Amino acid sequence: MAAALLGLVILMALALTIVAASARILREYERAVVFRFGRHTAVRGPGLIMLIPGVDRMVRVSLRTVTLNVPPQDIITRDNVPARVDAVVYFRVVDPAASVLRVEDGVKATLQIAATTLRSVLGKAELDALLAERERLNEDLQQLIDEQTEPWGIKVTAVEIKDVGIPATMQRAMARQAEAERERRAKVIHAEGELQASTTLAEAAGVMATHPTSLQLRYLQTLSEIGGDQSSTIVFPVPLDLLRSMSAAVSEPPAAAPQPTAARPERHAELPRGRAGELWTRGRERVSAGPRRRRH
């Protein structure tokens, strides 16, 4: 009786050992790829699964999304600009059996595919597109990498370009280009403003021409604005009527000069007669002849 009881205890312990060796617990995000005598039989999980000890083997596969950082890659863009680009890849396993049977290391294989595809796609793009059209490039990368990893049971959900490094000389050239573009836009905006202002001023001039009183009111408003400023400016208002009269006087042609009259012959004074006239005549002759030289 004691021997039978001992044998029963040994059998129960052996059974518990076999159950413990064959029982497996899988989490919600895990699956088990089961091999029996080296052949794939099924994919089990999640929860409690039972394996035959010594016969069945299983490989755990996680279905969670994996974040894979692609190392920086040195590329040359389509317009011959060297750049250094790194990216991040998000993928997950959708077919556990294929991820185990068709590829040895799915993470490593996806990393190599992502690096080569990154160099290939970005090498065909220009630098401006690489900086401004990242969304389109991310979609192209995601589609190309997903097509190559689909036979492995791996789904690439997203690819994001993290950083684009360019040489310092190219950065300075791009800064000068951006500055010139800003100056061009500023000049265009200023020219458009001048055009709109000139159009508005032309309309205002037409209104003032039809209503001269509005010009006087504008003149008085300008005087009030100048007078309100605390400065040493002195304003002398000049009536517009005075300016009009002065401009009219300047624009009139000059008056004709008077014609010169013929010169009248001078009337000589009547010479005295007799002895007085003879003396007066001799005096004039001496004055006209000048002083005489004395003889030595």
Describe this structure in words.
The chain is an alpha+beta fold and 296 residues long. Helices cover 52% and strands 21% of the residues. It has helices spanning 2-22, 96-101, 106-123, 127-132, 134-149, 168-210, 212-228, 240-251, 275-289, and strands spanning 23-26, 30-36, 39-44, 47-50, 56-62, 66-76, 82-93, 154-165. It has a three-stranded antiparallel β-sheet with strand order 3-2-5. It is rod-shaped and about 205 Å long. The model is unreliable at 265-269 (pLDDT under 50).
What does the secondary structure layout of this molecule look like, with pairings?
Blueprint: H1 2-22, E1 23-26, E2 30-36, E3 39-44, E4 47-50, E5 56-62, E6 66-76, E7 82-93, H2 96-101, H3 106-123, H4 127-132, H5 134-149, E8 154-165, H6 168-210, H7 212-228, H8 240-251, H9 275-289
Antiparallel strand pairs: 1-4, 2-3, 2-5, 6-7, 7-8
Main traits of this protein?
3-stranded antiparallel sheet, 296 residues, alpha+beta, 21% strand, 9 helices
Short structural summary:
The protein is an alpha+beta fold.
Could you give the distance between the termini? 205 Å
Order of strands across the biggest sheet? 3-2-5
Q: Could you describe the largest sheet, including whether it forms a barrel?
A: 3 strands, antiparallel
Q: How would the global form be characterised?
A: rod-shaped
Average predicted confidence as pLDDT: 81
Order of helices and strands: HEEEEEEEHHHHEHHHH
Number of distinct beta strands:
8
Computed Rg: 57 Å
Contiguous uncertain segments of 5+ residues: 265-269
Helical content stands at 40-55%
Q: What is the beta-strand fraction?
A: 15-25%
Number of helices: 9
Structural class: alpha+beta
